[in-house]
Backbone:
């Protein structure tokens, strides 16, 4: 039976004004379900419901907000098997990725922000002695900085992880006492409906969480420009982020933007090449390269350049490309036929620009599905578009450099600055280089993340920081309270 969803507005499941559109399995090209096509008026209605609910929810005791988030996490975990199958079907992620990196991370983020709802929001400031003057009598003045909820937050989420990404927005926003309007990516919104159902079952009051979807740009535009929306949290392309930023700027709405990336991986001549290959190689497999944090732009010192290219080529030979439901599959499809065509056009562009295609470059011989072969482009230069632009697929480009100074300069010669990486046997050297990289995060000899560390980008990779307690800060405003001692 095909899933046929409704909008969730003010605690009620509502038929969409615009009918439904098909959500397609990128591995089989079969219809997974029907997602609602909201009208602009319905989006505004959802935002108004969030505005109406904000007063009561923002004054709800933190312990009550924490209990609802914790129950929601437990409900998500309870139904993890079904959620895994749904996530795999609508995203094309492998079973292991859908289970461990999508559904499990989604529920764990709700648990994290259940605790986050109980974190202190006040910071005492040193008292200040003021002399008598135009502002009043002399005295000692105390002060405290208090984090208050922003208000109504629109959460526009990405297609590459329909569990972790929405959870990383919705949970901290609710923990801080905000209400939310959720607009998932049109390609794979069905998992977000499951997340909202968990919140409903957990006892989230009507209007606290509202969910609208649509394949038309007008739905997202309404979710951003509604006068009831105080803040927009967006994950997606830099171009769309810039358009959202213009709307927010005119209305002075708060923004949290996690945008594109073209992560530089500096591999120095003293690096453990096998470790570097294991890290860089995840670009070929993890979400089929559809991840903004991937080390897609490899800068290899000439002393190890040929060996590194050879090892990366050998790595791709062990990757099984195919149906993510089959055991042993490492590389699944990209999200859509249109995106497959886009990635392939970049590979062809690289060929024309003079890059050497070491592996890949041909469409996998599979009867159905939107597959792209893991592709390695060597002998690149920093001027090539395949090096400068985000491809968002299983494509790695390699650029040689001579010395440390040139490597740092190449890494920083980018419009992006989300996550960079340094592989070196000299940790002190790697830390020194990290301090000179214009990126929101730097991994040293690892692609691993510390999930309490701030996450966000420099330059066109975004505005603001989230993850851990930094997400609670992102979804709050600072208020100063001053009193005479």
Residues:
């Amino acid at each position: 039976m095909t899933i046929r969803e409704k909008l969730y507005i003010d605690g009620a499941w509502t038929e969409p004004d615009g009918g439904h559109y098909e959500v397609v399995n990128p591995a089989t090209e079969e219809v997974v379900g029907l997602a609602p096509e909201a009208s602009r008026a319905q989006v505004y209605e959802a935002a108004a419901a969030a505005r109406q609910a904000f007063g009561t929810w923002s004054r709800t005791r933190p312990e009550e907000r924490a209990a609802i988030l914790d129950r929601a996490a437990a409900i998500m975990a309870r139904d993890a098997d079904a959620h895994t199958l749904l996530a795999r079907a609508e995203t094309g992620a492998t079973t292991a990725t859908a289970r461990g990196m999508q559904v499990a991370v989604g529920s764990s983020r709700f648990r994290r922000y259940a605790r986050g709802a109980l974190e202190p929001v006040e910071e005492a400031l040193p008292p200040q002695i003021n002399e008598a003057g135009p502002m009043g009598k002399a005295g000692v003045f105390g002060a405290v900085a208090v984090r208050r909820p922003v208000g109504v937050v629109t959460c526009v989420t990405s297609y590459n992880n329909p569990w972790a990404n929405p959870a990383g927005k919705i949970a901290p926003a609710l923990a801080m006492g905000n209400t939310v309007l959720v607009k998932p990516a049109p390609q794979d919104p069905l998992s977000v409906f499951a997340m909202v159902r968990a919140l409903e079952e957990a006892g989230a009051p009507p209007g606290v969480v509202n969910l609208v979807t649509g394949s038309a740009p007008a739905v997202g535009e309404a979710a951003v420009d509604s006068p009831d929306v105080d803040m927009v949290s967006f994950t997606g392309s830099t171009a769309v982020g810039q358009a959202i930023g213009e709307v927010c700027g005119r209305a002075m709405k708060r923004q949290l933007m996690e945008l594109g990336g073209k992560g530089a991986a500096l591999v120095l001549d003293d690096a453990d090449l096998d470790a570097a290959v294991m890290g860089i190689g995840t670009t070929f497999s993890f979400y089929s390269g559809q991840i903004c944090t991937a080390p897609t732009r490899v800068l290899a010192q000439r002393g190890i350049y040929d060996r590194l290219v050879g090892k990366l080529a050998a790595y791709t030979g062990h990757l099984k490309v195919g149906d993510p439901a089959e055991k042993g599959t490492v590389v699944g499809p990209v999200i859509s036929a249109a995106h497959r065509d886009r990635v392939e056009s970049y590979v062809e562009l690289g060929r024309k620009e003079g890059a050497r295609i070491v592996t890949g470059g041909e469409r996998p011989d599979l009867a159905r599905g939107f597959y792209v072969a893991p592709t390695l482009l060597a002998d690149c230069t920093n001027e090539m578009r395949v090096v400068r632009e985000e491809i968002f697929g299983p494509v790695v480009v390699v650029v040689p450099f001579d010395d440390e100074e040139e490597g740092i300069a190449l890494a920083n010669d980018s419009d992006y600055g989300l996550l960079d990486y340094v592989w070196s046997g000299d940790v002190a050297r790697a830390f020194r280089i990290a301090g000179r990289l214009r990126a929101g995060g730097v991994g040293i000899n690892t692609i691993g993340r510390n999930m309490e560390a701030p996450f966000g980008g420099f330059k066109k990779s975004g505005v603001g920081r989230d993850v851990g307690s930094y997400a609670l800060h992102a979804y709050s405003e600072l208020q100063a309270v001053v009193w005479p001692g």
Remarks:
- The mean pLDDT is 96.
